[in-house]
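G.,

No rush on this.
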Amino acid sequence: MNPEDSGAPWSPGLFPAKEEPLSPFYTMLRSAPPDYLAQRDEPVDFPPAFPVYYFFYGTLTAPAQVKRILDLPEEPQLREAEIFSYAVAKWGDYPALINSKQGDVVTGSAYLVRSEEEAQKLSYHETNAYEVADCWVYFKDEKEPKETGGRVFMYAGDAQALLEQRFDRKLWSRQMEGKLG
């Protein structure tokens, strides 16, 4: 098949000089919907500042735990929520969020973090084994908003090493920053 006849945009150097069949991946990608790689029709604008929802999937789903960590006068109202394309693995006794395949769902809770101070307290609690990442939070209750850009604590090490239960050099290096030499 000649690429010029395929309806795909032609670009010199995109195809080899001699005629070769298109790869199955390229054929699939050409027929995929326009948002296949982005997984969203519109651009995602994650909140640049506070307040911002943080998605929790482990011990922080307990309001009493959030109250204690943030030194709040009363237990906070958490909203039942979920995020897509992530999975939870075990890092010892602790859950660790890692990227996963499209369609996988992690359920948990979301809390509206109101200040940098609250975010720092949560980060301190989570340790440097986790890093803050942007995510899209889908709420399971009837309140507004129904979905929003938010943040989540993800495993900071090598997810594949975690899944294979082998030494994680990436996390070890992160935890040793400034402590060696």
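When you get to it, here's the other one too:
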Amino acid sequence: MPHFVIDCSENVIRLKSADDIMQEVYHTALATNLFIPTDIKVRINPFTYYNNGNSSDDFIHVFGYILEGRNTDQKAALSKAIVTKLNEILPEVPIISINIMDFEKASYVNKAMV
């Protein structure tokens, strides 16, 4: 925990490698000091087929899933930091966004907990 799942148009990974994009998200999340380095997971899903409001503009959207306990200001700062970094490395991408969702501690289970 946390998990950052990056959805993007396939062209985005032609502009910058998937590994580079994931590393930038990883390092930006780490720099917030909200997470332990070994807990941060990042994945990327490039899409060939999509419709953005009836356009084919390139896009990046990050779904951030974090364990509950961070306040709204911390989550907002995390969101802003990631979008700012992605905009710095991919300024030609017109749509860059993120949302942060909390995992509930009471209902979260992973293999090590069973």
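Helices lie at 12-15, 18-31, 72-89. Strands lie at 3-9, 41-47, 59-67, 95-103.

Enjoy the weekend,
O.
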